[in-house]
Design goal:
Order of helices and strands: EHEEHEEEHEEEHHHE
Largest sheet: 10 strands, mixed
Structural class: alpha+beta
Number of helices: 6
Oligomer: single chain
Radius of gyration: 19 Å
Distance between the termini: 49 Å
Shape: globular
Helix content: 10-25%
Strand content: 25-35%
Number of strands: 10
Length: 259
């Protein structure tokens, strides 16, 4: 049975995350339904590189699709896109070796988070507007503490006893584009709500509510403070999923320009 690699973008505001759930509208569920409609097949495997939470967006989510078909990938892509809602779009479909696995073969993932310094009439669903002044230098000082193999128990809503809370974070970069502050976090994998809590802590540092050493201290001892500072889902984008041989990320840029 042929296997395909899908690269997908979506606006997550109307969905309860990526993964199929009972009695909830999800991105995977919409794609699953479109594939059934287009191919008239019920037996196939659609598996994503990772879950995104309710309201979170994706610039390049990756999934593999195992489907018996002789339709060329370009035609299959066009037909599935025609059956999808406007806020989900399959950017590419390519045949891959049968051993390719979207999740297990991924070596890292990167997320972007957009903080707006001003109110916007057009992009509210894709930013977190913070009225208070933010000190980006202080935020960068705090961000350096999160790079490396660290224990993010204070930064996840997962039950600590169910799996390891140690995560290898490759980079935490912050770009200042004036009206927009963009945070990029790249790592081996991410815990539930980890990136949003990390951004919330960095924002608190930028506002002067926390010091960089205090933010770093949440890695050393269990604290409920990051949970109270969780950034909203609206500003978070799954930027990219990386596989062996892929080039690293380029410069940090916003998803759109905000003057």
């Amino acid at each position: 049975m042929p296997r395909f690699k899908l690269v997908i973008e979506y606006s997550g505001g109307r969905y309860s995350g990526w993964q199929i759930q009972k009695n909830a509208r999800t991105v995977q569920g919409e794609i699953d339904q479109a594939i059934r409609e287009v191919t008239r097949r019920r037996e196939f495997e659609l598996y994503g590189a990772g879950r995104t939470d309710a309201g979170v967006h994706a610039l390049a989510q990756v999934a593999h699709l195992e489907l018996y078909t002789d339709v060329p990938p370009a035609t299959l892509r066009a037909r599935i896109n025609d059956a999808l809602p406007a806020d989900i779009h399959i950017r590419t479909i390519d045949k891959v070796p049968h051993r390719f696995h979207a999740r297990h073969d991924a070596v890292s993932r990167s997320y972007l988070y957009q903080i707006a310094r001003r109110k916007t009439a057009f992009f509210k669903p894709y930013v977190w507007w913070i009225k208070d002044p933010l000190d980006v230098t202080r935020m960068r000082d705090a961000a350096a503490s999160f790079v490396g193999m660290k224990n993010f128990e204070s930064f996840t809503a997962d039950e600590p006893g169910e799996k390891s809370t140690k995560v290898l974070v490759d980079r935490v970069e912050i770009a200042d584009e004036g009206a927009l502050i963009i945070v990029r976090v790249q790592g081996s994998h991410f815990l539930w709500r980890m990136v949003r809590r990390l951004v919330g802590v960095l924002a608190a540092v930028g506002r002067g509510e926390l010091t960089p050493p205090r933010a770093a201290g949440f890695l050393d001892e269990r604290s409920d403070v990051p949970a109270t500072l969780t950034a909203p889902a609206s500003g978070l984008f799954l930027e990219r999923v990386y596989y062996a041989g892929d080039e690293g990320p380029g410069p940090v840029r916003g998803v759109f320009r905000l003057d």
